[in-house]
Amino acid sequence: MNILEVKNVSRSYKNRRKNGKKEILENVSFSIEEGKFVSIVGPSGCGKSTLIGMLAGLDKPTSGEIYIDGKLVVGPDNGCGLVFQESSLFPWLTVEQNMEFGLKVKGIKKAQRQELARHYLNMVNLYSYKDYRIHELSGGMRQRISIARVLALETKILIMDEPFVAIDAQTQSMMHDEIIKLWEKTGKTILFITHDINEAVFLSDRTVVLGFHPNNVKASIDIDLPRPRNRESKEFLGYVNEIRDIIGRCSNE
C-alpha cells in the first residue's frame, strides 16, 4: 500500500522582473510504500525544499495533488513529522520538556505525554539525559532528541531534511546506524532529503533523483543491497556512480 502519493505536482511563483512565472517543480510524480525508507537527491536548486514544504502542508502546489494515507494534503496537520537540519530544540526547556512540547500542543494529557516522551527517549538511548538542558548535549545527541520528539508524535511519515549535515563525519556515520535501527524498530515510513549520494545509498530502499529542465523526477532507483551495507563494496559504489552520473547529466543540461 502506498502511504504517500505525489501526482503531477508543479509549483511556480510570479517572476516580477520578467513579468512571468518561475517554475520550481514541474509535473513531479512518485509514490512511497508504507514502511519504506526512500531518499530524494538532486543538485542545488532542483526544488527539494519546495517539495518538502508541500508535503508538510506548509505550501500548496500550483497544480497536482499530494495524498498521505489516502487523504489529500490541504494543510500542516496531515500525518507528516519533520526533522530539520538544525535540532530546533528549545534551550530554556529540559530534554523531557522538549519531548513533551508537541504532544502538549496536540492536547495530550500529562501522563500520556510523559509515557510517550520517556518511551522514545529510551529508544534513542537518551533517557538518562531527560533532565538536561539542550546546551549540555552534543550535536549528535541534540539531533537524536529531535528525531525522538517527532517519533513521539507517531505520525504516518517521518520527513528528514538533511538532518546530519551540521554534524561531523564520525558522528554522521554513527547517526546513520542509529536511524536504521530506529526505522527497523518502529516500521516508520521515512522520506530522507540529502545532497549526499553515499548517504542516500547507505540508508535507502529506493532513491528518487530530481533534476533540472524541467525540475522533476529523472530516475527512481531501487537499492538492492543487503543490510548492514558495505560502503566500499563494488555494488555499493556502482549505485553511487549511477546516481552521480544522472545528477551530472541533469546539471549539464
Helix residue percentage: 25-40%
Q: List the helices and strands in order.
A: EEEHEEEHHHEHEHEEH
Strand order of the main beta sheet, please? 6-7-8-3-9-10
Strand content: 25-35%
Could you list the spans in which at least 5 consecutive residues all have pLDDT below 50? none
Shape: globular
Distance between the termini: 35 Å
The helix tally amounts to 7
Provide the structure class. Answer: alpha/beta
Topology:
Blueprint: E1 2-15, E2 20-33, E3 37-41, H1 48-55, E4 63-68, E5 71-72, E6 80-83, H2 95-105, H3 110-123, H4 139-152, E7 157-161, H5 169-186, E8 189-193, H6 197-203, E9 206-210, E10 217-222, H7 234-252
Parallel strand pairs: 3-8, 3-9, 6-7, 7-8
Antiparallel strand pairs: 1-2, 1-4, 4-5, 9-10
Helix pairs in contact: 2-3, 2-4, 3-4, 6-7
